[in-house]
Amino acid sequence: xxxxxxxxxxxxxxxxxxxxxxxxxxxxxxxxxxxxxxxxxxxxxxxxxxxxxxxxxxxxxxxxxxxxxxxxxxxxxxxxxxxxxxxxxxxxxxxxxxxxxxxxxxxxxxxxxxxxxxxxxxxxxxxxxxxxxxxxxxxxxxxxxxxxxxxxxxxxxxxxxxxxxxxxxxxxxxxxxxxxxxxxxxxxxxxxxxxxxxxxxxxxxxxxxxxxxxxxxxxxxxxxxxxxxxxxxxxxxxxxxxxxxxxxxxxxxxxxxxxxxxxxxxxxxxxxxxxxxxxxxxxxxxxxxxxxxxxxxxxxxxxxxxxxxxxxxxxxxxxxxxxxxxxxxxxxxxxxxxxxxxxxxxxxxxxxxxxxxxxxxxxxxxxxxxxxxxxxxxxxxxxxxxxxxxxxxxxxxxxxxxxxxxxxxxxxxxxxxxxxxxxxxxxxxxxxxxxxxxxxxxxxxxxxxxxxxxxxxxxxxxxxxxxxxxxxxxxxxxxxxxxxxxxxxxxxxxxxxxxxxxxxxxxxxxxxxxxxxxxx
Length: 520
Fold this sequence. Notes:
Layout: H1 22-33, E1 68-71, E2 79-83, E3 86-91, E4 103-110, E5 131-142, E6 148-158, E7 164-166, E8 169-171, E9 173-183, E10 186-187, E11 193-196, E12 202-209, E13 217-223, H2 224-234, E14 244-255, E15 259-279, E16 288-292, E17 295-296, E18 313-323, E19 328-334, E20 345-351, E21 357-361, E22 373-377, E23 381-385, E24 390-391, E25 396-403, E26 410-415, E27 420-422, E28 425-428, E29 434-443, E30 449-459, H3 472-480, H4 505-513
Parallel strand pairs: 9-12, 24-30
Antiparallel strand pairs: 1-4, 2-3, 3-15, 4-14, 5-13, 5-15, 6-9, 6-14, 7-8, 9-10, 11-12, 15-18, 15-20, 16-17, 16-19, 19-22, 20-21, 23-25, 25-28, 26-27, 26-29, 29-30
Helix pairs in contact: 1-4, 3-4
């Protein structure tokens, strides 16, 4: 039920030394749209849980790759940070918000309706994702006044077939939640559902945890297909409307309480996959057993290889629950008979439903009565970083990184102007302003691959007066048009530095960043 404000604070904010006198103007304009909330003392004391050990969220990362931090509307004391891979969300909302204006502290990955509603970014969320889960611990809560809060996991969808209409609303995105919900000290029962209109998508939520206590650990899980269908059904829309998962958000929201602190150590992305390998002396009579993450695989090899013939036969096994967000343990064990012959395994490979290789190991492993085979399967995770402000016509550096798989890695790049590059660090220039698609492909030594694509914003050149230097005259022009949008008299497209259809604090911040520079 989160209502998001206009995204006038940039996730790519970078502070440098060229603020000079323009900082004064920037701060003044910030005051127009941001009214700081004074710190208030707690009305009662909350208990706190002990600190958590490390998690798998990694470090703060810009959208869409995520996980993004700092998402909290600028409230004093409200924050989202990553500490040893644990997402720590703290929300202070005493005297702030109501049933139509929720405050929030979250972390996000992907694309979202307010950014605006758009198709999923390539490679950010795993292909074929069937389930998303996360664990959390309530660290502390301090009540005050008439309050409400949600601890939630939200999935956001893009409707590729086009906008749909229900109840007089027309949107092309869905906003769904699974959550714990507390209203004035009372937790809502499991099964409580509601629809809502956040202004950019069809919203639907359901309560899946009926109570939470300080220090306890809980799990929220959302079935990707079911969440989409439930949302559509709740709004009276056809449940066979195609949905594409675009974004995942994890965090807390609410109003009026003094402080809510929730820590999130892990998240889980589950995808279906296919396991192939070659083995010999696989007799097909329960002699060999395969488990994935301590669970028997749904389908064991049905084709026998020649008994004691040492002839390799290829087997294919469906793996319905492969953890794409971390490590999987695949174990081969041998029965206590026919112990004189080794049942070797080689050329093991895991692929997703688009036939992308997630893990590959060609080596020969020995399986017998005394020796099991244990594979630790960790899909490659690819990402790249770019500088904070990218300007049309200026060279930009892109830095690639990868985790898991088998080193060494190979990195290749493609840009939507038809250019390509290779290597960990590459540079490229775009001739036109606006958003451009940048794609990174990573492959490891054994042929496992990962692809990630990001829409990168290239700003207009900051000298709007055309004199090659960024002066107070440039900033003043933007200040005059501040708050205007397309269709309004004061709007000037020359001053819309990020081409988002409005002139706001982002445009002023961009000019302030380059204030005093020349050569444009």
